[in-house]
Model the fold of this input.
Amino acid sequence: MTAPKVFVLSGPNLNRLGTRQPEIYGSDTLVDIHDAVTAEAQRLGLAADCRQTNSEGELIGWLHEAVDDGADVVLNPGAFTHYSYAVRDACAIVTTSGRSLIEVHLSNPAAREEFRHTSVVAGVATGTIAGFGLQSYLLALRALV
Ligand code: DQA
Done:
């Protein structure tokens, strides 16, 4: 049997992890996160496809691709979390197609600036995990299984 697929998608500015506000996001780079995700996914019997983009359109295309591939999604939408109805609508396409979509954040947006308290994605996600750094991604994989 082939391992169930999971798309692990990260949005804008997350390619700068490691040097981007380490007091908030920690010292792990995106490569560190992708390596840890790949290892944990293998341990859980999942096939992880890890990607990052700074482009809203590309991210939306990947969410459509997840639906077409029958893949679940772990998504850190970055700042799109707080205002992108287009990303929200694409997430809704994932979850209404019967796939799971776990929203993740490294930091805890609820404990930060007011504008980060709103997630337009949360209402169409299967669930949200925030505030645990790299572990947020690994916990999301565990939630999927
Ligand atoms: C983030 C939180 C967002 O508010 C922010 O815009 C990000 C990262 C996080 O992982 O904590 O880019 O999604």
The chain has five helices and five strands. The radius of gyration is 14 Å.
